[in-house]
Amino acid sequence: MKLKHVLAVSLLAGIAQVALARSHAQTYPLQPVLDAAQSDNAVQLYFADAAHPAVVSDLGNVTKSIRVARKIDGEAESCNTAMTQALRELREYAHDQGATAVIGIQTRFHETHSTTATEFACGTSMSAAALKIQGELVKFDAK
């Protein structure tokens, strides 16, 4: 009888762990992140198919994966923190590669993609917020 109770409790604990470990993906507005972010004008960011100056040199693509510990401030705030970090890392990498801009920026979390200039995709779990960001490193005409 004791073995049945141990097995039942173990099974319930396993189910609870799987339920809590699931992640939730959705899109969030980009503007609050951009408003709060400190901009370094050395590298400009252009999301999705936003218009930009003429490209003189294509320096390749970049993808960054970001995961931040989730705080008690909610999913949106945790995702905003992850996106802020993603933009900072994207700019730093672009600068180190000699790019003046990153164009065509898109975000995703698993199968949830954002290819607009107004939203970004992010996933949250009980412990973290995460996303992938990608774009094309370029140099613009110096006019």
How do the helices and strands line up, and which of them pair or pack?
Layout: H1 2-21, E1 24-29, H2 31-36, E2 44-47, E3 55-69, H3 75-96, E4 101-109, E5 112-114, E6 119-124, E7 128-140
Parallel strand pairs: 2-4
Antiparallel strand pairs: 1-6, 3-7, 4-5, 4-7, 6-7
Stated plainly, the CATH topology is called Translation Initiation Factor IF3
Fraction of residues in β-strands: 35-45%
Query: In the residues, how many domains can be counted?
Result: 1
Overall pLDDT metric: 86
What low-confidence regions span 5 or more consecutive residues with pLDDT below 50? 12-20
Structural class category? alpha+beta
Question: Count the strands?
Answer: 7
N-to-C span:
82 Å
Radius of gyration: 20 Å
The helical percent reads 25-40%
The CATH homologous superfamily is called Hypothetical protein apc22750. Chain B
| Sheet with most strands | 7 strands, mixed
**Overall morphology:** elongated
Protein name: Excinuclease ABC subunit A
Pfam family, one: YbjQ_1
Family: Belongs to the UPF0145 family.
Organism: Trinickia fusca
